Predict the 3D structure of the following.
Amino acid sequence: MADRYQQLVNTPIGKLVAKQVGLPNPPRLERYTPGAPVIEGTVLLGAAPGGRLTGAIAGALASAGAETLTAMQDEVRGAAADAGLDAAIFNPDAAPESQRFKALVFDASGIADSEQLHEAWAFLHPVIRRVQRCARVIVLGTPPEDCDVPAQAVAQRALEGLTRAIGKEIRNGGTAQLVYVRPGGEAEVESTLRFLLSPRSAFVSGQVVRIGPSVTETSDTIDWERPLTGKVALVTGAARGIGAAIAEVLARDGAHVVGLDIPAMSQELTAGMDAIGGSVLAADITADDAPAQIASHLLEFHQGVDIVVHNAGVTRDKTLGRMPAELWDTVIAINLTAPQRIDQELFARRAVRDNGRIVCVSSISGIAGNAGQTNYSTSKAGVIGIVQEFAPALADRGVTINAVAPGFIETQMTAAMPIGTREAGRRLNSLSQGGLPVDVAETIAWFASPASRGVTGNIVRVCGQSLLGA
Ligand code: NAD
């Protein structure tokens, strides 16, 4: 459904009125178009002394072709030069007033105690007001649980408050994220940096991502434009809404998509799959024989599957005291039990190929809870449980498992909400608007990439930094 308020306040007169009376002014977010560079504009790279990630970040920026300036420290300049990053130095005192940045990237891994958090301030303070619209602020650190010394763990944990607050301060469509890189995961930062720097992450803000060492031994060279070439992806609930967008984006990135939806949606599903060269699997995922049917289809026609996206989901809202058992059972069966049964069958029959990717679709209702949605919130919190429970075991076969937790996304599901709830859902986030299905899809494509070998066990919200459950 169109966000008419956003359209109105983006007219010259609407902008003026909104400003005068203090109404939210949702900015137009930049979104990715195929063939566009990873980032258009200058990146400023800085680090706290002793950072262990600066070289890896510089390497990723060089590979992404990002126009970069470095902070004045010798250590940063040296790491950039060693990584082959051609970057001039930025001197805040001498730079022209017109110098603007599209992204600020700070390696905070060298911060060993709370006093050294000053380094983050020293890097960001002089430049935070020089950012362009839809800018990116990315801070990288060490997960507190991997720190040897308590003072370092405390300081690294503190970075979460910094990035979340920046997400709320930055205007004009800007976002801020914290990326924790475990020791040994340095070489795995590129796919995540590319995603977070680019307009693909338009509606992702205030998130904490954890990257670890690669769960696979091999690291093939990657075609960043079509990283999923040769891969087979199963997308459940692919006939419309977010599922249709996931199918489109995975196909754009080179995958053959097997779109699954209930038989009643076959017409829409077939039209969608025809448009992207995908294939159709009509099934109700809660049917007793659905897991076997899905596994047989994937093995018979595709010799297995590389990417499984558990997107099919429903809401059946009622407050708990008014909720009949069937509404409870339906939501749990579709949203939570079915993905587990399907995974179980696919793994039992070795249908998921090595280095596979499982992506679940949770919801901020599963994080924050939501009145009228005890069934849905339970199911979506359970989906987070699936990710947390299975990530360590699947890593043995190079398989990653992650979840997206969408906030308010403009789909038929949210269009059906009462207007008050709908407007609140749209505005109560740092970007004061709803996200688009493509925003969820791009996040899933990042998880699905063969380059995201070190990204597992993450729950990433696609919610514009919603105030709910923040
Ligand atoms: P939607 O209702 O537009 O699409 C869901 C699709 O799943 C439909 O095509 C439907 O036919 C299919 N489906 C439902 N039950 C099925 C079953 N038993 N077997 C096979 N397919 C089935 O919903 P959407 O807004 O696109 O949501 C997609 C996912 O995103 C869901 O898991 C939803 O919970 C989640 N989500 C959506 C939002 C949002 O704002 N729209 C927010 C958070 C999470």
About this structure: The mean pLDDT is 94. The pocket of nicotinamide-adenine-dinucleotide is lined by residues 236-237, 239-243, 261-262, 265, 284-286, 311-314, 334, 361, 363, 406, 408-409, 411-414 (CB under 6 Å). The first strand starts at residue 43 and ends at 47. Residues 160 and 178 are 6 Å apart (CA to CA).
